[in-house]
């Protein structure tokens, strides 16, 4: 079984990040040490890519959080102004 991970970046683009094939299946197929070393290298690269995507997503979350908090504060101020002008 092979699963590909897809995530959507902030600019609407879809990023495809690596794939995961069950350990048992992969190890059963591999009989060569060099193949195992190559697989380790591949997995390390995929892990690095996932970590990079994670950092990008965390940055995007922080930016959106700040923007939403600012917008909420502005809306609350607008409500207060409307309330005082009605009274």
From TrEMBL:
Keyword field: Coiled coil
Any coiled-coil regions, as ranges: 33-78
Top-level division of the source organism's lineage: Eukaryota
Protein name: Peripherin-like protein
Species, as recorded: Lates japonicus
